[in-house]
Amino acid sequence: MDKDLHLAMDAVGSTGANAPLGSHAAQIYREFAAEHGGEDFSAVINLLRSS
Questions:
Q1: Contacts by 47-51 with C-beta closer than 8 Å and gap 24+?
Q2: Does the pLDDT at position 46 exceed 90?
Q3: CA dist 24 to 9, 21, Å?
Q4: Domain 3-hydroxyisobutyrate dehydrogenase-like NAD-binding, which positions (predicted)?
Q5: CB distance 1 to 26 below 8 Å
């Protein structure tokens, strides 16, 4: 997922567009992966619920 988010943000950046929600999603996923890397991505909802 991190790779996909990174590729998407690179694509956005190459067009000169701004994607603040994409950047925020990438940040949330990095935080999730740092603490819960072995869990399925769908568990990111638990991080969102606790914030």
A1: none
A2: no
A3: 11, 5
A4: 1-48
A5: no
Residue 31 pLDDT exceeds 90: no
**What pTM was computed for the model?**
0.69
Q: DSSP state, 9?
A: H
Domain count, the chain: 1
What does the alpha-carbon distance between residue 17 and residue 3 come to, in Å, rounded to a whole number? 20
- C-alpha angle 21-36-42 in degrees, rounded to nearest 5: 55
- CATH number of the domain residue 20 falls in: 1.10.1040.10
Give the separation between CA 19 and CA 31, rounded to whole angstroms: 19
